[in-house]
Amino acid sequence: MWEYTNKVKDYFLQPKNSGEIENADGVGEVGSIVCGDALRLTLKVDRDTDRITDAKFQTFGCASAIASSSALTELIKGKTVDEALQVSNQDIADFLGGLPKEKMHCSVLGREALEAAVANYRGITTLKEDKSDLVCKCFDVSEEKIRKVAIENHLTTVDDISDYTKACGGCGECMEKIQVILNDIWKVKALEKPAKTRKLTNLQKIALIQEIIDKEIRPGLQADGGDIELIDIEGNKVMIALRGMCTGCLMAGVTLEGIQNKLRELVSDAIILEAQ
Q1: Are 81 and 64 a contacting pair, CB within 8 Å?
Q2: Please, what is the end-to-end C-alpha distance for the chain in angstroms?
Q3: Which of 1-5, 74-78, 143-147 has the lowest mean pLDDT?
Q4: What pLDDT digit, counting tens, does each position of 34-47 carry?
Q5: How far apart are CA 103 and CA 77, in angstroms?
């Protein structure tokens, strides 16, 4: 039996904003009834101010899915579209006073529906997911989703990934693949140790940051058609610019957070990343 907060119970038993907006400005559909969770989010947006004036949801899922969808609509109403995109799946869980770790995938589903609805509002055509990229075929979870969720929520174990995506919740054959992906995301190389064990001169810090960007960050971005350019370094402030497909990407915020976390991990906890 899951331990639900009173707010989760309230938003499940008396959901806010359930239903569908007619002539919606943005529509996002994610998940699959076959896999156990599906969500349709509709938005009404004031195009003069780019502010979300209404949001409604329809969902097929458990109590956590209904409560998370309801919480999402409450969180984004009144925000601009860009402000709404800053709402993370953890924000949804926090709004509800927490979710059982095994149900965090419900908050992730809400976040994905929001991204899809905003893309639809902005007239951005999202590419259909490449089925060859699937890691978990039982629940249709791709490598891209695993990497995104792991970086955004700092997940380090296969069990964590399962809680947030349902991957490995079926036959279990994808366990090794998920572990390989996690090892790649959070790998630690020898060059990391000096940054944490001795004080660096400014020149050494610049050289280390450039090396980390070249070896740890750029290859992953280039694999998806993006790139990164180091613009300047002032003390602990690191100024960069995203290039290629990363420019204007809806997930740019998540990418920047991942880069900053990597630099804080390998260089200094005081690093502040600024995008130009």
Answers
A1: no
A2: 48
A3: 1-5
A4: 666 889 999 999 99
A5: 24
Cα separation, 229 vs 150, in Å, equals 24
Contact indicator for 217, 238 with CB cutoff of 8 Å: no
Tokens describing residue 107: 């908050």
Catalytic residue among 62, 106, 171, 246: 106
Mark which of 99, 121, 143 sits at the end of a domain.
121
- What DSSP state is assigned to residue 253? H
| Residue of 35, 62, 138, 249 marked active site | 35
| 0.85 exceeded by pTM | no
Task: Quickly count: other Cβ atoms within 10 Å of residue 6's Cβ.
Answer: 9
Domain count for the chain, please give it. 3
**Does the annotation mark 106 as catalytic?**
yes
Q: Which DSSP letter does residue 201 get?
A: P
Are the C-beta atoms of 238 and 230 separated by less than 8 Å? Answer: yes
Kindly state the tokens that stand for 243.
């290039």
CB atoms within 10 A of CB 222: 15
State which residues form the domain around 167: 131-185
Mean pLDDT is lowest, of 77-91, 107-121, 137-151, for: 137-151
Show the tokens assigned to 230: 């180091």
Backbone φ and ψ for 125, nearest 5 degrees, come out as -85, 120
* CB 2, CB 106: distance < 8 Å: no
User: Is residue 1 included in any domain, yes or no?
Assistant: no
Return phi, psi of residue 61, to 5°: 175, -165
C-alpha to C-alpha distance for 37 and 263, rounded to whole angstroms: 36
My answer on whether 105 and 162 are in the same domain is no
Residues 17 and 107 in one domain: yes
Compute how many other C-beta atoms are within 10 angstroms of the C-beta atom of residue 59.
23
